[in-house]
Amino acid sequence: MRQSGFSLLELVIVIILVILLFLAAWWRLLPLRGSAEAAHVATTVGTLRSALGMHVAERIVAGEFDTVANLDGSNPMGLLERAPANYLGSIETGSSDIVPGSWYFERASGRLAYRVRHPQYLSGDADGPVDLHWRVEVEFQPGEVNRGASGDRIREVRIEALHDRQWHDTQTSELTNTAQPRPVQ
After folding, report:
1. Residues 6+ apart with CB under 8 A from 103
2. What would the pLDDT profile of 111-168 be if each residue is shown by its tens digit?
3. 9 in a domain, yes or no?
4. Could you give the strand order of the β-sheet that contains 87-91, starting from the edge strand earlier in sequence?
5. Which among 10, 126, 130, 149 has most CB atoms closer than 10 A?
6. Number of folded domains in the chain?
7. Is the pLDDT of residue 84 over 80?
C-alpha cells in the first residue's frame, strides 16, 4: 500500500516556484509606490486648488472682494471640509521628526508642505528628508502701488509650487511634473 502526497523534492520545487513568482511580482509592483505617491500629491493639490477657487468665488459673490488679499500665505487645508488623514496640522517650522507621507503647514513661512515617503522616485538628490512646498499667492495687477488697500485689482489667486522636483514615471522612466496642473486637452 502506497501513500499519496508530496515527496520532499516536490515540496521544495513548489516552494522555490512560489518564491520566484513572489519576487517577480514584487519587482514589478515596487516602483508603483512612486506612482501612487505622485497621484496622491497631485490629487490633494488639485483638490486644494478647487477649494481655493470656490472660496474666492464665495467671497466675491458675498461682496467681500477686499478680503481676498488676506488669503496670501494662508493655509489652504482650512478650506477643505475635512483635511486628509495624513495632515499633521499647522506647525511653526518644518523639522526632521515629521513622519514621511505627511502634510503640514508652516506658519512662519506660510507654506504648505508634504514630506515625501519615497524620495527615490523624485528627481534630484535625496539626502535626508525631502519636502515639497506650495504657497497660496495673491497676484495683483501690474502697476498697482497700494497692495491690499481698497481698490486694488487682484489678477489671480493660486496655489503655487515652490519646488521644481518631478516624479519619475515608473512605466516610461521619464519625469512627470505634478507641481503644476496639466492643461486640459
Report:
1. 44, 77, 83, 84, 86, 87, 88, 112, 113, 114
2. 999 999 988 888 877 777 889 999 999 888 765 554 444 456 778 899 999 988 888 7
3. no
4. 87-91, 102-106, 111-115, 131-140, 154-161
5. 130
6. 1
7. yes
